[in-house]
From TrEMBL:
The keyword Secreted applies. Its main location: secreted. Keywords: Disulfide bond, Lectin, Secreted, Signal. GO terms for molecular function: carbohydrate binding. Residues 99-186 form the ILEI/PANDER domain. This is Protein FAM3C. Belongs to the FAM3 family.
């Protein structure tokens, strides 16, 4: 009888130990699994969410450069957008864009915004645009984007003044072309920041208008 009791006690002890060890192992496995799963999710979130740079551009600008991003208008529905150093200077949301050529002026040394205007090149007069272009001070960054139509009223004088800011496409800008440009007053070379899509009924994304043109980059700060 004593031996039988001893066997039962040992059996109960072993069973209890087994059950306890199983419970603890399950809990341990669950906790470890949760920790690993969470760390994996965190790592995935970090890898899929790239760092945000000024104006949402794809990479950071070096020192002594200003980040910019801009887009032309979409047909005659969505206005253009111009952003410099994380500051949206012109957009439909700000309600300061219009048909024609939209212009933002920025201080070339500080990156501070100076002025924003739009000039109707379909139903308006080119004279005020020419006067505005002539009044721009040396060292000013000039950003331009079309909306709807930016070319019909442009004359040779206006095109020449824009070419002097560093544009190469302005001579070929036609009816309802989409165009974005970033140059500067007093620039000695042609600007690398320009995108131009011709209005072509065979390739237009929208009926009567080409697709939006977008551009981003880093503008060198003006040095003394």
């Amino acid at each position: 009888i004593g031996a039988a009791k001893l066997v039962v006690v040992v059996a109960i002890f072993l069973l209890t130990f087994y059950v306890i060890s199983q419970v603890f192992e399950i809990k341990m496995d669950t906790n470890l699994g949760h920790i690993f799963a969470r760390s994996a999710l965190d790592a995935a979130a970090r890898s899929t969410k790239p760092p945000r740079y000024k104006c949402g551009i794809s990479k950071a600008c070096p020192e002594k450069h200003f980040a910019f991003k801009m887009a032309s208008g979409a047909a005659n529905v969505v206005g253009p957008k111009i952003c410099v150093e994380d500051n949206v200077l012109m957009s439909g949301v700000k309600n300061n864009v219009g048909r024609g050529i939209n212009v933002a002026l920025v201080n070339g040394k500080t990156g501070e915004p100076l002025d924003t205007k739009f000039f109707d090149m379909w139903g308006g007069d080119v004279a005020p645009f020419i006067e505005f272009l002539k009044s721009i001070q040396d060292g000013t960054i000039v950003l331009m984007g079309t909306y709807d139509d930016g070319a019909t009223k442009l004359n040779e004088e206006a095109r020449k003044l824009i070419a002097e800011l560093g544009s190469t496409s302005i001579t070929n800008l036609g009816f309802r072309d989409n165009w974005v440009f970033c140059g500067g007053k007093g620039i000695k070379t042609k600007s690398p920041f320009e995108q131009h899509i011709k209005n072509n009924k065979d390739t237009n994304k929208y009926e009567g208008w080409p697709e939006v043109v977008e551009m981003e980059g880093c503008i060198p700060q003006k040095q003394d």
